[in-house]
Write a structure and sequence with these properties.
Number of strands: 0
Number of helices: 3
Shape: rod-shaped
Radius of gyration: 27 Å
Largest sheet: none
Order of helices and strands: HHH
Strand content: under 5%
Helix content: over 70%
Structural class: mainly alpha
Distance between the termini: 75 Å
Length: 67
């Protein structure tokens, strides 16, 4: 039981000292913004690339009779 108690005490101590290890600067909000922007825009970029690729594939005549 004492081991479980010491686990909670040590996690509380780490939570108190977490601001020392976070290193929040003025660049931190920009990094978060750019990360989230990439997550939001990446599906649209992939969708545009796939649409463009399959649009050109549709223009090519298919030679199914030649097979």
């Amino acid at each position: 039981m004492l081991g479980l108690y010491s686990f909670f005490v040590s996690t509380t101590a780490f939570a108190v000292d977490s601001y020392r290890y976070a290193h929040v600067t003025i660049e931190t909000p920009w990094m978060i913004f750019l990360f989230l922007l990439a997550i939001v825009l990446l599906p649209f970029i992939v969708m545009a690339i796939l649409y463009w690729r399959y649009a050109f594939m549709k223009d090519k005549p298919e030679d199914r009779d030649a097979e």
